[in-house]
Amino acid sequence: MSNRYEMRFAGSGGQGVILASVIIAEAAVISGVKAVQSQAYGPEARGGVSKAETVISRDQIWYSKVTKPNFLLALTQASLDKYSTELAEGAIVMMDDSLKAPEYLDAARVISIPILETAKTKVGKAFTANIVAVGAINRALQLFEGKELMEGVKRHIPAGTEEINEKALNEGAALISDKQAAAFKQSIG
Amino acid sequence: MSKAVLMQGNEAVVEGAIAAGFRFFAGYPITPSTEIAEQSALRLPQVGGKFIQMEDEIASIAAVLGASAAGMKAMTATSGPGFSLMQENIGYGVMAEIPCVIVDVQRAGPSTGLATSPAQGDYMQAKWGTHGDHPVIAISPASVLECYTLIIRAFNLSEKYRTPVIFLMDEIVGHMREGVELPNPNDLIINPRKMSFHDGANKQCYYVPEGEFIPAMKPFGQGERYNITGLAHDESGFPVNSNEIADKLVTRLLEKVEKNVDKICRIEEYAMDDAETAIVCFGGTTRAVMSAVLKARAEGKKVGMFRPITVWPFPEAQLRERLPQLKKILMVEHNHGQMLQEVQRTVGGKLPVDFLGCVDGTVISPDAILNKLNEMEGKRHAK
To answer: pTM of the entire structure?
Structure first.
């Protein structure tokens, strides 16, 4: 990893992409690296394009925003189309497999997995899609230890929902093959 | 595991305020300050404090002034539209010398503008929003940790000088989360309120001993009754229509801050020792400026950062000290040129002052700042 790893999380308002970026930042802080998280969204509580960003680094992070993301999560076609045009070289794109990947993306750097469907059917709650995504992200990029990630999740979910969120994390991780995990692993610092 | 926790700027404001003794919040939630109200609603009852959601921002600042007069450390939080509504009563707080902290998490205006987007367009309003000649202290944080440490300073200054203090944030810092290790509560310096309890010689509620500027505060609603008014008043607190007394009062109010400007004004500098170009910035803009300065330095350019932490009064003495070594100044702020006017006034035409701003609700990037520096360089060479 270069000394600044930029991650962008995009979807529709209400899908929890901001929380996903917060959990990744929390896990980073727990693991002892620096993280800054921010977001941009419209005035509506549901719908509209929602964008969240996390920057991770071993060094002090000054500028808090993402300019050329090294990683993009997209949960809607609109957010995929909008944000896949401004990526760093070699960036990894994780998208829900219900979406159509733009042709200009390098297929070898695209992880297309059933995030929304897994949340709905395997976990049993559609609203856990963001946590499924977090599980998949960490399995693919191998940023944090499992317990660091789970602690990050716990700090941001209502008490009593630990079990279903842990299940969502695990189901998300299971969407990533060993081959993908080997190909996309990032090393911090 | 690290001791740091991930915290949002708005949350850190509440935690720092509580550490400073803040126990009363009245407000009307507005993006991007809402988390301050939410967190106050959660945290204040846990520490024996009170949270009230009022019907609007006019009522909010009124309730805050009332609570403070009655003896509580009080705060409200808002954004541009609400800050506008509060202006009349901020002046009342100044005139009646009621300490309190008003947090303005700036968003893009004017009017309701872009509700969720950052800006720094309330800089001049923080100073001149309320009418009449009056002192203003305003502080602007650039990190989540500073939201915690500087809100404590805002309370301390407010209590020390018996005047409302503006905590001038922006959406960049208010909504940003970063890992912070909060200071040990035992290491904090908290100014208690200077109180007076009718001890014979000192009966008047606005009595100011010779050579001092600030009357000790009588607890309102306990013991002897007294009057609080926004009208010009004498030491008894009752209105008077005397030019002489009004002059003495307003001069004293202004001098509370003017005579203590060295103690109140704080700045942060980076790489200024040999800098020939200073980038001046405040609040959330500092983040992009720091990235730009580090990149410019890596290219061998003699660029430094000068950042007022106390944004009102503007730290003109500190900036003036740097002028002899500088060849030019670049002001970067998320507005159409507001602190720029203070910088130009301070520089007084001795140096070229360039400007980079924006009013579209986006965040100025380090690259935009570097491009501006290159453009200035080009201009200079062309001469």
So the answer is: 0.95
